[in-house]
Amino acid sequence: MMSDWLIYFLGAIAILSACYVLFTSNLLFAAFALVLTFISIALLYLVMGAEFIAVTQIMIYVGGIIVLIIFGVMLTNKLGNEPPRSGSHNKFIAALVSVSMFGLLCFAIVQMNFSNDMIGGSLLQIKKIGQVLFTDYLILFELAGILLLIALIGASVIASKKDAA
């Protein structure tokens, strides 16, 4: 019973913070609201027993993509002393596409057959993924991390260059 209320609470936080991301014009506040959305979704995964997906959500989205977005926002040139702002022009089309996607996802969820067989061996799968990732693919895993770091440093250098004109 308590987990039901926790799921509803975390879902409400995720929905409200995602709506804030949609409707704010301040990019920095939108990035922080996106962090809150990702963390609440990771906590939802954790409450529902999907620990691997929760950790993956935090490592990839909160740890990587959000840091990249915040660097991008911080390194953009400001107009005067105002923070960078974004505007939207196609709200009707965006709403139509969003409602269509929501309907399609609801239809797919209703048609899906959820059984206990899907959850049964999840801990064994997590262990197998971890062993393969850190034994057979360790060098590729580390090279991907180094490549992403080089890309982040390169983007920072390119964004911070001043025009000589």
Mind explaining what this structure looks like?
The chain is mainly alpha-helical and 165 residues long. The chain folds into two domains: 1-91, NADH-ubiquinone/plastoquinone oxidoreductase chain 6, subunit NuoJ (Four Helix Bundle (Hemerythrin (Met), subunit A), Up-down Bundle), CATH 1.20.120; 113-165, no CATH class. 76% of the residues lie in helices and 0% in strands. The protein contains six helices and no strands. It has helices at 2-23, 27-47, 51-75, 91-111, 122-135, 138-160. Helix 3 packs parallel to helix 6. The longest helix is centred in the middle third of the chain and has 25 residues, at 51-75.
How can the largest sheet be summarized?
Answer: none
Helix count, DSSP H or I runs of 4 or more residues: 6
Fourth CATH level, the homologous superfamily of the largest domain: NADH-ubiquinone/plastoquinone oxidoreductase chain 6, subunit NuoJ
Strand percentage lies at under 5%
Classification by helices and strands: mainly alpha
Q: Rg from C-alpha positions?
A: 20 Å
Low-confidence stretches: none
Helix content: over 70%
End-to-end CA span = 65 Å
Average pLDDT: 79
Count of all domains? 2
Number of strands: 0
Spell out the helices and strands N to C: HHHHHH
CATH class of the largest domain reads Mainly Alpha
From the 3D coordinates, which CATH architecture of the largest domain would you assign? Up-down Bundle
Shape: globular
CATH topology of the largest domain: Four Helix Bundle (Hemerythrin (Met), subunit A)
